[in-house]
Amino acid sequence: MHNGYLEWLGRNQDGRVAFTAKMVRSVVDGVRNNLLDTDKLPGQLMPGIRSHAQISNLLILNWTAGAPADDSSATAFRSFVGGLVACAMRDLPDSMSQLTHANLAVAGLSLDQAMEHAMTNFRSRIPRPVFEPVRDGLFGCNNLVDHQSAMLLLTPGADYDLPAIDGAPVAVVPTRNLFYLTGSASRAGLASALDLAQGANQMPWYCSSALLQWDGRRWIEAELTGDLAMRQRELKQRQLADEYARQKERLDQYHQSKGQDIYVSGQMVFRPKDSPELFSVTSLGSGTTGTFLPHADRLTFVKQIVDPQTGLAYGPPADAADVAWPDAMAIAGHLFEPVPYIHPPRLRALGFPAEDIWARLKTVAR
Predict the structure, then answer these.
(1) Exposed/middle/buried for residue 356 (C-beta within 10 Å: 0-12, 13-18, 19+)
(2) Which of 61, 128, 180, 209 has the fewest CB atoms within 10 Å of its CB?
(3) Residues 6 or more apart whose Cβ sits within 8 Å of residue 322
(4) pLDDT attached to residue 311
(5) Element (H, E) at 106
(6) pLDDT digits over 160-177, tens only?
(7) How far apart are CA 358 and CA 353, in angstroms?
């Protein structure tokens, strides 16, 4: 509904009416086709490239709705590149849905088999991709509509003609229905690609803010240089912080629905006064158990003053140790365990550093 509302906002009155009608039809589709027809399913499959974070958040929503707290209701996928995954989609006239492990089991298909059907359908049904100039050195394609992001599963220059780019293909896929290409040697095109990636997470049907470069065999994350490299690093840091914030919201809802008192820590991004570089930080307070921590550049351990009667912290902290993440894991990594199934990854705190560990942390603290 969030994606649909954002797309509805961007349309004129006639477009809003048409989109609302399609949304209603998609609900009817879901009701009428809530059971898989295993005979028809191979012909309904199409490939999808989606954000791993989006896939994970959908799983957490399933948990909140009552699904088991494992990956049995998760979308079946394989990792791709740049925080993206490839999955098989069930494509109906007015709706699309991601197939779960359970769906594939009912259909008697492995993920590889499902993806093979999906790619066969994709290649036979999609129109020829058409690129149009957007800005200097940047070209856009949107004539594949909701299947635009799946172009990443094709070979550029072989499965479709490349526009007049300068250098190796560099792609930006901000949403599932937008695909942009520039060349690795086009500074203007790369700068424009970064501009588009900057606002990707505010678009409906968000996919990725990563810049991906074709190395002749596969897509890899592009490595920009100079001031563009700094912009790229900052974009990745802010995007990760945003993904953690959205994940925290979903986890808080899930824990509340189960009556679980688990603190989900956020990731904050700062720019020091004496440096142009951003860094991320999260914190762990004493007196808490089971805190979910995001990965960050720095981890601040906070010794809190805890009221023995209420178990609540009060007043200013008694002490703190602000430590680089690698140092924190090297010294106190035994106090954490991975939280399974979710992305971006988190660690569960099993306790707070004892005095001997605290002393070691203080020696490397900033």
Answers:
(1) exposed
(2) 128
(3) 281, 298, 299, 300, 365, 366
(4) 67
(5) helix 101-107
(6) 999 999 999 999 999 999
(7) 6
**pLDDT in the model for residue 308:** 75
Answer whether 179's CB lies under 8 Å from 141's CB: yes
- Whole-angstrom Cα distance, residue 250 to residue 248? 5
The total of other beta-carbon atoms located within 10 Å of residue 111's CB is: 17
| Dist. CA 184–CA 86, nearest whole Å | 24
Describe the strand order of the beta sheet including 336-338 as a list of residue ranges: 292-294, 346-349, 336-338
**What pLDDT does residue 33 have?**
45
Report how far Cα 308 is from the mean position of its chain's Cα atoms.
41
This prediction has a pTM of: 0.86
Tens of pLDDT, residue by residue over 1-27, are 555 656 666 777 777 766 676 666 555
Give pLDDT, residue 26.
58
Give the per-residue pLDDT at 52: 96
Tokens of 278: 């951003």
Average confidence (pLDDT) per 10 residues, the chain, 366 residues: 63 71 59 68 96 96 95 94 95 87 92 97 95 96 94 97 97 95 97 94 89 97 95 94 96 96 94 84 90 97 81 78 97 97 97 95 95
**Nearest C-alpha neighbor of 244 from the set 77, 60, 99:** 60
The strand pairing partners of 156, in sequence order, are 160
**With contact defined as beta carbons under 8 Å apart, do 252 and 278 qualify?**
no
Per-residue burial over 132-166, b = 16 or more CB atoms within 10 Å of its CB, e = otherwise:
eebbebbbbbeebeebbbbbbbbebeeebeebebe
- CA–CA gap between residue 35 and residue 30 (Å, rounded): 9
